[in-house]
Amino acid sequence: MCGIVGYIGQKKRINFLLEPLKRLEYRGYDSCGVAFRLNGNSKKIFLKKEKGKINKLKDNLSPERNFEIGIAHTRWATHGAPTKINAHPHFGCKKEIFLVHNGIIENYKEIKDLLLKRGHKFISQTDTEVIAHLVEEFAGKGSILNALHQTVNKLKGSFAILMFSSREEKIYLARKESPLIAGILKDGFLVASDTSALCGFTKKIVTLRDKEIGVISKNDLCIYNFNLRKIKFQVEQVKIDAQEMDKKGFAYFMLKEIFEQPGVLKNLFSYYVRAGKIEFKELNLKREYLASLNKIFIFACGTAFHAGLVCKYFLEKYARINVEIDVSSEARYRDIFIKKNDLVVAISQSGETADTLASVKEAKRKGAKILGICNVLGSRLTKEADAFIHTLAGPEIGVASTKAYTAQIYSLFLFSLYLARLRKTLKPKVEKTILEELKNIGNYQEAILKQADAVRRIAKKFSKFGCFLFLGRGINYPSALEGALKLKEISYIPAEGYAAGEMKHGPIALIDEYRAVVCIALEGVLYEKVVSNIQEIKARKGKVLGVLSRGDKEASLLTDEKIYLPRLKNHDLTPLLVAIPLQLFAYYVAKNLGCEIDQPRNLAKSVTVE
Ligand code: M6R
Fold it and tell me: How far is CA 324 from the centre of its chain?
């Protein structure tokens, strides 16, 4: 994971490097560092590292410091603990080569052993340090570009590298799998792990493609492939608005993103539904192909996997198609029986999740077509997939995914209905009714958000519990999984999501007066069965928070606290509502416990390593 930034150009204050770096903190935040060439003294390199977040680094750097070439890094530790020594930038023995890296070098031990024999001395436990020494070894007194070229061809694993040498006024970049984007400024170049870091600095970007090397001087950018053949590149326009990267008065990005959901869903509706008809104009998959599909596979991780689970129910019911779903980290290694032309739906907010990309690669090898459901234009998933649906949620900064989740579900609901029409599995009248309700989901979400204060009060009471069970059934079973994931990732309270019908097969053993259970018991489908589960929990003194239908008369009598949701005509759309109180609940519990909401410990937003 990790975020990297580099700059070359006219004189700038050090903040110019730290500001974009802060935007990448979602990728990792256990340690950080910078290296830059001081003005007027090309040989002198300034290096500073800290354990902890970028603000700490900022506090220990004089803001007046100027530089013309610099690199910076925010780390999510893989090899070696999050210490000052292991923080990047790393350097070679001669302290000429300085570099930052995002990714994992799988053969670093082998390279390190060779370099040790050649007399190199290592000071960190990282895999990254070998890259700096290897470049130094190959470079000798010769060309840095040649040395980098030889180095990247020796490395196994994934990497985005930013590097400079005290000998030259240049920045070098290289990537294999991990992302790297160069922003073109009026007076130089700003390079970063993703476009969000470049927002507000430039609108012109060049995305380095896989296995490319870049060389940037103050006014020129050259790109080579890994055979050192110079190649043409395209300058693209950034579409993200810098204002979207702001908290807009909310205490945390997570809270802001929870509140953005109604707007996101309304926008998705107006983008994909024209004159009452779902249209995926940019979908690069033939209608005949979609109509004749036999099977769909869904691959995703974490929250995106839960969105996929919800959509499995929906796709099977309305498009009458067999759907298999797997977490990408399993799918990539399981010899899944995928046939040529089967469709793989890969869901990913970032479009950079290593396991999802690897599962896609494997499916492509077997001849499948790939449909990416993705929130980030230009991400690797959008480039690897045969077609993609943009979830249009806008930048999601909070590590805990919220608006991306409901946007994924909504987009896939629309896709399922589109598929159902092509396959003639749904009466137009029924499609129309579902669409009408989907159109209004944003308004229903707004009504739920008005209860945020009530959820805050309930969360306060429930913050004392040391263990949570989330129960749901049918299409809200994935909602229970997602509710538990949200709570555990930001509050660190152990939480389990379960299909309510499974309770008697194990989890009921947990129940006593010290455990809390969140029950999704909406009227309509399997309601009575969940009510029985609540009875069973109460008989064992468990505390119950019910997520109930407005006007509920039965479950409300049993539950200790309740959150009421508007009633929908179609129960299958309720996951889009249930998500809101569960996200708010997790948020307020975590806030009560004084947790770091946007940047929970040990996590990173984009999991770009395996
Ligand atoms: O970018 P992706 O959607 O591929 O990310 C997948 C998961 O890493 C992500 O959903 C993770 O589980 C979130 N932290 C959940 O809130």
Answer: 22
